[in-house]
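Supplementary Methods, section 5.1.

A reviewer requested that the exact input to the structure prediction be made available. We therefore reproduce it here, unchanged from the version used in the analyses.
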Amino acid sequence: MSLDAETTMRKAVNLARSTKPAYHELYDFLESVFASQLKVKPRCKVSLKPIKLQTIHAQWHAGRPLIRRWEFPLDIEAAEEVLDGITQAVPADNRELSGACAALSQALTRNPSAKDAIWESFLHHEWNPWEEWVETFGVDLPSLLYVARSCLRPSLEKTAEELLKTVSPDDLWQEGYCPVCGSLPSLITLEGEGFRRGHCSWCGTPWRLARFQCPVCNNRRHESLGYLYSDEEPGYRIDYCNQCRHYFKTIDARERLWPLWILLEEWTTLHLDLVAQRARWKTPPSPAPAVYDIDTSSVPS
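The structure derived from this sequence is encoded token-by-token as follows.
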């Protein structure tokens, strides 16, 4: 386990406990999930076909990410270890999550020869291929997707890091979606001298965004971009685009005195989603429409 990452994560969770008590019921569970992911990630074995540097440059110059979401290699042993950790951490009264863990575990037990296919089915988003193996009657679908994709997250992050070992997208990538997998950011941070950085909702890759740029429709006209802000919560804002009507939660990392853990922030900013949605801004999908060319209006993250 990476001690630096674990220390940062636990410090972020502890500080959130004191600064955001409204989410107190989440912290023990999330801390266990993050710890399980951090524990397996350094050991993840992802079989990845190398991509030549000139190919990477050519793809990025053309605005194409390096791989598609369903092409990520997976370490299924690592995924099952995280599943065990999540199962043990689920609060006793949370029937949705416990049902999702049980359904996935039972599918893996019943179909030992199809484990790879079962895990790989959760890399897709346009249909529900896992239903071939997972008994979903009475199972909360968002909880099932959350559990399965939390189990896969270490493999996704490890793959992205391997692909970017020798090259940085910062000076080459101009798009609003992830340079590795073509997904939209789950969060945006303001850093340094005011530049923005997106954090991929799928593989966790950070990349630079233009100062004025909508990640969904690439609108760069500043007069049609704006943000919502509250004096009661400095350091947070909701960026929106008047052209496509989508919004993104943004954290001013320059204002923070405590460590930032993006996966935690996704959960402890849910109140910002409510504010944005009540103002009739649209929640962005995870797969970028410009890359995946599908109607993502009803696609869960």
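The chain has a mean pLDDT of 92. These observations are discussed further in the main text.
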